Amino acid sequence: MKEHVRFLLSQQGPFAEKISGYQERESQMIMAEAVASAMENSSIELIEAGTGTGKTFAYLVPAMQFEGKTIIATGTRNLQDQLFLKDLPTVIRATGKTRKLALLKGRQNYLCLYRLESNLQSAHFVNKAIVEDIVKIREWSRKTTDGDLSQISFIQEDSAAIPFVTSTADNCLGSECSAYQDCFVAKARKHAMDSDIIVVNHHLLMADVALKRDGFGELLPKADAYIIDEAHQLPDIATMFFGQALSSRQLMELARDSEQAYRTEATDCPDLSEAAAQLEKASADLRIAMGEEVARDFWRLYRERAEIAEHFDQLLSALARLCDVLKEQAIRSRDLENLYERAEELHQKAGLFTEEDESEYVQWLEVYRKSFTLNATPLSIAQKFRQAMKGYKEAAWIMTSATLAVNEDFGFFERKLGLFDAQRMVLPSPFNYQEQALLYVPRYLKNPAASDYTQSFLAAMIPLMTIAKGRTFLLFTSHRALNEAAELLQSHHEFQLFVQGQASKAYLLEKFRKTPNSVLLGTFSFWEGVDVAGDALSLVAIDKLPFVSPGDPVNQARIDAMRREKRDAFGQFQLPDAIIALKQGAGRLIRNVTDRGVLVIGDPRIVGRQYGQKFMADLPPMIPTRNSALVEEFLSQL
């Protein structure tokens, strides 16, 4: 297969014949050969492919030629749609090879007919706006063939109605549901089972891996090859699925569904209504006791407070009482049985947060305006992931990204996932960065820890943004700096500002591309997965080196654990993590062979500290400069 995929992608092959302006890329053909070899030999292959390699076709072409079943996992639903609706059809048109394809999303993306109807019947639970959205969704439900909610344009993506018309793994009744024959999730999964190539996202794949590891069934069919794009995201997503979480939303949904079951199926059991109300009150009281919103903090610091401990005990008691009531009622219907199973599971989860041993897991919480989430996150998933991989030993695993290695060393990524027997390949970008871009580190910027650092950073940027006529990404390492910069730039009416949080990511990017003098301000969600090629973007500026926050409970616990083991937490965790993040941010600038621009790194530590050399060594080989006049001259010609 290696020789064939090379031919297909060569200048003599069908892509060159059928795609106008197609040019073969040696790095793309080398990657395609490596993917083909891994698929044939059922091996693990790690491939760092620089921007412009053409890695999507480099793995899709062998996947289409491979006779086994292939699952392709990508980072976002947007990338899923692009692969399924654009890239795979292009490969089919070029090669003439057809396979049975499936696009499979998580269940929260599909309409649940049972919950739609049951929640409409009990519409007194929700406000008028939500009911109106549910009614619109019911009208749409009569026309849709696949129930994919992403096709809906008449309600907001984050509409509060969505939880009322979708199922979760907790509340789904499975084959015993009265609407099972028409279930969109079941239909999508059946289609996937019968397909040769299935496109999923990382979350769905990791949910399946975690389920199979724990022996609780499966979400995806067993495949002969797994291709993970944007694989640098995999460790964090896997960590989430190997951990535990208890949210007030889960508790409130259980209380609401229990009250609904009382009204529709157990009207002779007032204890059920009382127990549901008790749980709802206990959850709300605990949130009030937690006080102000908190991004992330140690749960133990909250649990030690007498008021929190008292309300958490009341929550445990409320869950225990609801379990007792539902246990007696479970025999009456599958719905009540499901509620009992959910209550038991949440009671067990809540019990985890009474334990004080944090040698393997760190317990932390997030407090929002009206809700909270308790989390138990493993300090390491290497052993868990390696154990899970044993169930796939006859399958190929290809993991690829533009940022998998640190200075061409995959050790950081491999240690996270416990991968010790992988083949490795680094393919540099084919772009001529020496001609296309400058790397500018301004002089005289303040210490990044200074309170007025953002002001200092913008003072260096505004002249460059003016010369560039906007066309600028300002990427920040914190929301605080983002908001401060947005406020400071409000008086500069020559720029059209687009600020993360004002609208959806897709909307902001679309407006940025089309609007003259535009400047987009974003935090980490804009550091990756963003592709603005051409003249719309000429300047990318990063305020600070993206070190993880040592005050974050998960990071702090990992750093402390490494220090206890006499390991170098900075060199083995904080530094490589920041290098990979910086590579992602830097990758926003040059997206094709004709792009030109300037990358600005405001943080003086990149030239003033010894470790700065490691950052510089892993950035694209742009011409480095500290000469502002040279940068201004370069920008004026773009």
Question: What value does the average pLDDT take?
Answer: 94
CATH topology of the largest domain: Rossmann fold
Q: What is the terminal separation in angstroms?
A: 44 Å
CATH architect. name of the largest domain: 3-Layer(aba) Sandwich
Give the amount of beta strand, in percent.
5-15%
> Helicity level, as a percent range?
40-55%
Explain the overall architecture.
The structure is a single chain. This protein is α/β, with parallel strands linked by helices. It has four domains: 2-100 and 195-241 and 381-427, P-loop containing nucleotide triphosphate hydrolases (Rossmann fold), CATH 3.40.50; 107-175, no CATH class; 245-378, Up-down Bundle (de novo design (two linked rop proteins)), CATH 1.20.1440; 433-636, 3-Layer(aba) Sandwich (Rossmann fold). Helix 4 (55-65) crosses helix 5 and helix 10 packs across helix 17.
Descriptive keywords:
7-stranded parallel beta sheet; hydrolase activity, acting on acid anhydrides, in phosphorus-containing anhydrides; Rossmann fold; 48% helix; alpha/beta; EC 3.6.4.12; 638 residues; ATP-dep_Helicase_C; de novo design (two linked rop proteins); 13% strand; ATP-binding
Concise structural overview:
Residues 326-356 form a coiled coil. The chain is of the alpha/beta class and 638 residues long. 48% of the residues lie in helices and 13% in strands.
